[in-house]
Amino acid sequence: MTLAGSRDLRRYSRHLLIPEIGLAGQERLASSRALVIGAGGLGAPVLAYLAAAGVGRIGVLDDDSVDESNLQRQILFEHADIGRPKATVAAERLQALNPQITIDALQVRFDASNARDLVRLYDVVIDCSDRFTTRYCASDACSLEKKIEIFAAIFRFDGQVTRFDPDGPCYRCLFPYAPEPGSVPTCAEGGVLGVLPGIVGAWQASEALKALLQIGEPLRGRLLLVDALAARTREVRFARDPDCIRCGDRPTLFDPVDAHDDESTASIAGIAEVAPEELDAALRDALLLDVREPHEAVLGVIPGAVHIPASQLEARMHELDSAKRYIVACRVGVRSRWAIARLRDAGFQRVAHLEGGLLRYAALDAGFEFF
C-alpha cells in the first residue's frame, strides 16, 4: 500500500519529518496489520494511537459490552454507549478518527479454539486483556505463529510492559504458572487509577509501532515497571527459560491452552449458585458471608452480613458455624469462589455462591448503595 497524495502527506507530516520513519516507514505502517486483544483500559489508548499513526488494518477483539464503570478510564467510550458492544463502538470511533484505515470489529472471546486463526491474520499482536487465561493463550498462539506480541498489565497505580518475540522469551518464561484462582485481585476488585491505562497503553502502542517499523531498541527480555504513585519506572531483565513448556529446549506445548485464571467462571462442583435477584429471598434462611476486604466493604454493606475478608478467612474460620447456611459473596464473584473452596476443605457443606457478586446485586437493588 502506498500513500495516496497530499492529504496523506499532510496527515502524517510529523512522522515524515522523523528520519527513522519518513515516507518509507509511513508506507510500511499503512501496509501493516495489528490485532488488539481487549478494547478496555489499555486497549483504548493503544487503538487510538495505532489508528492515528496510520496502521493500515486494526483488529479490535472484545466480546464485552460497555459498562458505566468503564467510563472512568476507557476513553473510547461515552455515557451513551453503555450496553453497546465494545468492539463495535471502538471501531466506529477509530474509523471516525482515521477514515483511511480498515477496522475489523471482532466481537468474540479469544480462546484456544480461535487463537491461532486470529493471530495468523496480523503482523503484531497487542495483548490488552485483563485475564490470565487470555494472556497465556495469546502468548502461546503468537509463539506458535511466529508473531511479535506486546504485553502489558495494570493494577491500582502499577503497570508493566514488555515485548515477546517468536524466538523467545515468552510469557511463560516470565510467569511459568498461572496464579491460583482468587489469589490475585482484579482491577474490578482492587481498582485502578483512571489515567494509568493511558500511561501504560502509550508504552504498548510505542512498542507496537517500533515493531512494525523495525526501528529502535525493543523491550525484548526487559519488563518495564511503572509506578505512577511514586512517579518512577524501573526495568527487570529476563531470559528465555530452557525448561519453558512452549519455547524451551524441549517444548511440550504445541497448541494454545486455556489455563485457569483468577476470573474463571467455572462452577464449583456441588455448590449451589444464587442469582442476584434471588438473594433477598435466600437470606430468609441463610447468612451472607461477605469476603470483601475492609477497604471495599466501606462502599456498601448488607445488614446482617458476616464480614470476614478473604485474606483472613483461614485464620478466622472458627468464627463461623458449620451448621448454618452461608451465601458467600465478594465484589464480582471471584474471591468468593476461592473462599468456598477453602470452606469446603474445612468441612462446611451448607454453602452457596452469589453469582456475579455484590456488584451485580447492586445493579438490581436501587436501595443498596454500592459502587
Give short descriptive properties of this protein.
371 residues; Oxidized Rhodanese, domain 1; 2 domains; 8-stranded mixed β-sheet; 5-stranded parallel β-sheet
What is the 3D shape?
A: globular
- Calculate the mean pLDDT score and round it: 89
CATH class of the largest domain: Alpha Beta
Structural class: alpha/beta
Through-space gap between termini: 48 Å
The CATH architecture term of the largest domain is 3-Layer(aba) Sandwich
Radius of gyration: 23 Å
DSSP helix fraction: 25-40%
Model regions low in confidence, pLDDT < 50 over at least 5 residues: 261-267
Description:
This protein has 15 helices and 13 strands. It is α/β, with parallel strands linked by helices. The protein has two domains: 32-237, Rossmann fold (3-Layer(aba) Sandwich), CATH 3.40.50.720; 272-364, Oxidized Rhodanese, domain 1. Strands 3-2-1-4-5-6-7-8 form an eight-stranded mixed β-sheet, sandwiched between helices. Helix 4 (43-53) runs parallel beside helix 5 (86-97) and helix 4 (43-53) crosses helix 10 (196-213). The chain is globular, with a radius of gyration of 23 Å. The termini are far apart.
